[in-house]
Specification:
The chain is an alpha/beta fold. It contains 10 helices and 12 strands. The longest helix is centred in the middle third of the chain and has 13 residues. It is globular, with a radius of gyration of 19 Å.
Length: about 300
């Protein structure tokens, strides 16, 4: 059994991918109650802890019970680094401390390997994160990947960091052919359609698209279903738009089932909560297929 601990686990996208690659999630931590309920539903044997990793209790719990596991996943909230964050000086945004707090905690846990996924803008802090892990004896690799290259039907640009001990070798995954929105939504079982958008919303979407206008905090677009979807994030997932699919002469918003498919969740994965809570969970998710391909690149070396 290859064990993995998932910090900032959300609904469990990363754990889902690691499980598909042969890992067993043994502990998961998050502050979002609804997301953690979804996680518990899909990983009933995992020790799920609700709380802040800055708390002494959680730090001690992790160090005392889950040190030296095969991998620790750390994907702290990324809004502070996102282009959608309008803070003038992102260097000092309060949320920016979380990656460093998490890195120092994980270094104390001494796992065999570490996986970090964030928005691409986090590449700016990679040298500082690397220094924390290198000081603890790890070899660090980081890069920018597009999720669409790894069987995710979505062009999602992400920063990936892998830290490995002497017991682990990491081989970056080989890119795969892209999967279009149309192909993803044709995989059985077919996901339910989202609601038809109102004429008012449709005219706004078409106007913004025609003039190439992008709203701060979200996109307004009719999807080209022959290509991977644009980046899915929490502010683009209103049930009334703005991401829209044209079917015949009508336009439809995305259902939560369609969003889950475009995030590469298996159809067997169950989401818990209100429609709004589920859309937030989906927008914050690490695509499971991206996580799976990264996890498969971790090879554990036996010294026996």
């Amino acid at each position: 059994m290859k064990s993995v601990v998932d910090l900032f686990c959300g609904s469990g996208g990363t754990s889902c991918g690691f499980r598909a690659a042969g890992f067993t999630p043994v502990c998961a931590v998050d502050m979002d109650e609804a997301a953690l309920e979804t996680y518990k539903t899909n990983f009933p044997q995992t020790d799920c802890v609700r709380g802040d990793i800055k708390s002494t209790y959680i730090k001690n719990h992790l160090i005392e019970n889950y040190s030296h596991v095969d991998c620790v996943i750390m994907c702290p909230p990324c809004q502070a680094f996102s282009k959608r964050n309008l803070t003038e000086d992102k260097e000092f945004d309060a949320k920016n401390e979380l990656p460093f707090i998490a890195a120092r905690l994980v270094a104390k846990m001494k796992p065999k390997s570490i996986f970090m996924e964030e928005v691409a803008q986090c590449e700016t802090i990679a040298p500082k994160i690397s220094k924390i892990f290198e000081k603890a004896g790890y070899e660090v690799q980081y890069t920018i990947l597009y999720a669409s290259d790894y069987e995710v039907p979505q062009r999602r640009k992400r920063f990936i960091l892998i830290a490995t001990s002497d017991e682990v070798e990491f081989t970056p995954p080989t890119p795969k052919p892209e999967i279009s929105v149309k192909k993803a939504l044709k995989i059985r079982p077919y996901p339910k359609y989202g609601p038809q958008v109102s004429e008012k919303v449709l005219q706004k979407i078409l106007y913004l698209q025609k003039h190439g206008i992008r709203l701060i905090g979200g996109n307004c677009a009719v999807m080209d279903v022959s290509k991977p979807a644009p980046t899915i994030h929490t502010q683009s997932l209103s049930s009334s738009g703005p991401y829209t699919i044209k079917r015949g002469d009508k336009y439809y918003s995305l259902s939560t089932e369609e969003v889950a498919r475009l995030q590469s969740y298996p159809s067997s994965f169950k989401f818990v909560g209100t429609d709004t809570a589920i859309r937030r969970q989906l927008g914050n998710s690490v695509p499971p297929m991206l996580a799976k391909h990264i996890a498969k690149g971790l090879r554990f070396v036996s010294f026996s």
